[in-house]
Amino acid sequence: MPPDPPLIVIAAGGDGSRIGGGKPARLLGGQRLIDRMVAWAMRHSDAVALAVREGTGDWGTGLPVLIDAHTGIGPISALASTMQEGHRLQRETVLLIGCDLPFLPDDLIPRLRAALADHAAALPVSAGRLHPMAALWRCDPEHLEQWIAGGGQSLWRYAREAGMAEVTWDETPDPYANVNDAQALAAAEQRLRMAER
């Protein structure tokens, strides 16, 4: 029997200040970033949710909402919520992805899963950079909560401490390019136009 697909959670609770706020609702190719990410996630798992801050809502997606239990510590709070939900659903692994990664590759999960082995996490690498916001994690909420309780806040430091594998993508343009600001959004629009030619 093949393993269950991971719970996929889209982190949509950041303030998006570098892009002027409301990042999940920003349009790319006439489609909201959040809707692009939901479509990608639903192609790859039967369990998809959003991680948001209190009062954010589901951005009109109709997906289950996981409220960050920790505040002021960045995206590791979304990973904590993701692991708690993954444990509830009895999923061995969870995939936490940012809402601003519109070009994620379709081989992300199988390649990360193949590398996971006895590691706690498998992280993609592209253009010489680790991408903890597109990582596959072994579901271990108790260990993560202990790390946060000890002052831990960095996703990649947690992955390194817990034990991680790295998987390199050499494709260009970068499948892990994210949309953090207006310049990156314009570049993503140009990339879509080039791909349609």
Topology record:
Blueprint: E1 7-11, E2 27-28, E3 31-32, H1 33-44, E4 48-52, E5 65-67, H2 76-88, E6 93-98, H3 108-116, E7 121-126, E8 129-130, E9 134-138, H4 141-149, H5 155-162, E10 164-169, H6 182-196
Parallel strand pairs: 1-4, 1-6, 4-5, 7-10
Antiparallel strand pairs: 2-3, 6-9, 7-8, 7-9
Helix pairs in contact: 2-4
Instruction: Please state the structural category.
Output: alpha/beta
Query: Considering the protein shown, what is the CATH homologous superfamily?
Result: Spore Coat Polysaccharide Biosynthesis Protein SpsA, Chain A
Mean pLDDT: 93
CATH topology: Spore Coat Polysaccharide Biosynthesis Protein SpsA, Chain A
N-to-C order of helices and strands: EEEHEEHEHEEEHHEH
- Examine the secondary-structure arrangement and name the CATH architecture: Alpha-Beta Complex
Helix coverage percent: 25-40%
Largest sheet features: 8 strands, mixed
CATH class bucket: Alpha Beta
Q: Report the radius of gyration as a whole number of Å.
A: 16 Å
Strand content: 15-25%
Give the total of beta strands: 10
Unreliable runs, pLDDT <50, ≥5 residues? none
Annotation field: number of helices: 6
